Amino acid sequence: MSPPPAGPAQVDAAYGDNGLDSALFMENARKGSIVSRANSIGSTSASSVPNTDDEDSDYHQESCKESYKDQRRRAHTQAEQKRRDAIKKGYNDLQAIVPTCEQQDFSISSQKLSKAIVLQKTIDYIQFLHKEKKKQEEEVSTLRKDVMALQIMKVNYEQIVKAHQDNPNEGKNQISDEVKFNVFQGIMDSLFQSFNASVSVTSFQELSACVFSWIEEHCKPQTLRDVVIGVLHKVKCQLY
């Protein structure tokens, strides 16, 4: 048997409180699904968006690193420029000090001297100055010896002058120049006699050999002493 058709009461019952609750549940479930789906999409979108704070920090670090490199590069460039300026100034000073660097040929007067030429000319000039210094030192040493000799002669002459002043009558008993000449003549005559007897003048070689032999034999201190004593005794006998 088929169920009887629903009457107005049954229809009202179907749309009663239980029916409305079921409809509201379904509607809420559908809205909840939409909200959860939206939240899921939002979280996915949020996760796909990059973190701007981290990017700003990384960019700041990179910029600081690049700035430090730039500072080091700039400092290195400045130091290198100072070094080159100092070298250039040194070469310019050498060209101004060394005379040979200024004396250029007319053919190359318009050309700038290379660093190698400047250094070589500087070395040559320093060596020249060393030679001149050594030469001047030798001249100074010679002059000092001359000064010492003159001082000794000065002292001796002062002593002679003082001795004459202290004994004004001493010069009256001095030996005459003639007597001195006779003594000198007697000594030379004796030496010439031995020289003429011992030295041969046939050739230069014989002369050289005989002269050395004569000096060693007849010019010894004891031999000369005997000659002088003999001459003085002879002159004394002539005077008295």
Describe the structure.
Helix 6 (177-198) crosses helix 7 (204-218) and helix 6 crosses helix 8. The N and C termini lie far apart (213 Å). Residues 1-20 and 44-49 have low confidence and may be disordered. The chain is rod-shaped. It is built from eight helices and no strands. With 240 residues, the protein is mainly alpha-helical.
Could you outline the blueprint of secondary structure elements for this entry?
Blueprint (H helix, E strand, L loop, with lengths): L7 H7 L2 H32 L3 H46 L1 H4 L12 H52 L10 H22 L5 H15 L2 H19 L1
Helix pairs in contact: 6-7, 6-8
Helix content, binned percent: over 70%
Q: What is the rounded distance between the termini?
A: 213 Å
Number of strands: 0
Count the DSSP helices: 8
Region (Disordered): 35-85
Protein name: Max-like protein X
GO cellular component, one term: nucleoplasm
GO biological process, one term: positive regulation of transcription by RNA polymerase II
